[in-house]
Structure formats: C-alpha cells, structure tokens
Amino acid sequence: MEFYELVAQAEASGVAVMTRNIGRHHGRYLLKHRLIMLSPRLSGPQTISALAHELGHAFYGDDGPQPPELEARAWRWAACALITPALYAEAEVAAATTHLGAIARELGVTRQVVEAWLDAQDSMSNVRYINFGRIEQGA
Q1: CB environment 10-41: b (16+ within 10 A), e (fewer)
Q2: Top-level CATH class of 3-129?
Q3: 14, 50, 59, 136: which has the highest count of C-beta atoms within 10 A?
Q4: What φ, ψ does residue 27 adopt, rounded to 5°?
C-alpha cells in the first residue's frame, strides 16, 4: 500500500495526518483532535509502517501512550492493513529467503510489521480484509 492510500484512508475516517517533530517517537495519535503526527525523519518504510500503526490506534480509539499489549494490537492492525497472504508469499519468493528483514524490504515496510503480521496469523479466523486493507472484526 502506498503512503497516499493510507492518508486517504485516514481522511475518509475523519483523521488528519501531519508531519511534525515529535522527539524520539515515530508517530503519535491524538484521539481528541483525531490527528496522527508523523516524524519527518523517517524512511519510506518507517513512515508507512508508523502511519498504519497509528491508524490502528485510531481504529481502536486509543489515546496517548499505551501498554505493551495495546501497542502490539495496533501493530497487528497495521500489519493486516499492509500485508495480505498473497503479498507475503510474493515477497518471500522475490526475496528468495525467509529472512524477515529481506521480506520487509520487498514489502516496503519495517521488520516489526512483518513480525506483527506473522503473530496475527494465529488469530485471523475472526478478521477479514476489505477495501484498502481496512479490516473489520467479526465474521
């Protein structure tokens, strides 16, 4: 998925996206303002991964720093928005390896997103993919 597609998805959900110096953070979601802030110092894969992660927080209504289990949930959401089983298989073939870093490079995301996608596969029975990688819970 391209950056502009993620921004369009955010805007369609009523969430604004902007770049801003936010210290050591890659991204932040502010529920009260329905605003995602992204660091301008990120690489392309980091930007896409951080934006999808923050969209996960928006999807769940999270606000501010979250405990590890909710951060992991946002990463799984991001992973499912960015990666499908077919894309993963294509990336694995193109990379000619099962090395997660190489697969991440092929997918244009961070290794953290690939790891979250693999973690999410165990619980995919109640998630289905819909337009632009957005997911909807339930069957």
Answers
A1: beeeebebeeeeeeeebbbbbeeeebbbbbee
A2: alpha beta
A3: 50
A4: -155, 160
Confidence of residue 8 (pLDDT cuts 50, 70, 90): very high
Tokens describing residue 93: 């073939």
Q: What is the helix (H) or strand (E) element at residue 50, kind and residue range? A: helix 44-60
What are the CA-CA distances from residue 108 to residues 29, 48, 95, 102, 105 (Å)? 22, 8, 12, 10, 5
Q: Mapping DSSP to helix (H, G, I), strand (E, B) and coil, where does residue 30 land?
A: strand
Q: What is the 8-class DSSP label of residue 32?
A: T
How many whole angstroms from its chain centre is CA 107? 12
E-state strands within 1-139: 16-19, 27-30, 35-38, 127-129, 135-137
Sheet order of strands, 27-30 included: 16-19, 35-38, 27-30
pLDDT digits (tens, 9 = 90+) for 25-59: 999 999 999 999 999 999 999 999 999 999 999 99
Nearest to 80 by CA among 123, 46, 40: 123
Amino acid at 61: G
